[in-house]
Amino acid sequence: MSRARRIGATRIDLNELIKRSALAVLAILAVLLPVLKVSLVSESDDIVLGDFRLLGGAAYLLLVAFLCGLSTVVIDSMRAHSRFIDIAGLIIAVAAVSRAAYSLSASLIRNPIAVDAPPQRLDQLAQVSLSYGSVPLLLILFGALWQSRKSWRS
Length: 154
Description:
This protein is α+β, with helices and mostly antiparallel strands. The protein has helices at about 15-30, 60-75, 80-110, 135-154; strands at about 5, 10-15, 35-40, 45-50, 125-130.
């Protein structure tokens, strides 16, 4: 059931507006909240998506993609490009999740030969774990998959 409203000459689908605005809010949260937590012996540090160890400046492409997706609901001339915007958001979300998973798995995998040897570098002492910012990032991944599947069907 599609609820559509008219504002002037523009037809706005309210369900689509709610879904895309939820994805835009999740994108903002994913960029602002820390995704990984790095703990050393005496201190800990949070890594956000925009940190150079994860995506760097490319993290803001996540915001751009989902805010452009939100604008496809309101601006008539952008509706024709909504499929490609959804695909771009999905690609960036997959890149963000895979880069965070790589950083997490690289810290968990230790060299089995040198178990008794002391670590040579400071980053081998660090323990990396997921932080609360990883929840919006995973929700964005599933939402982008769902949105791109839905846009290609119509």
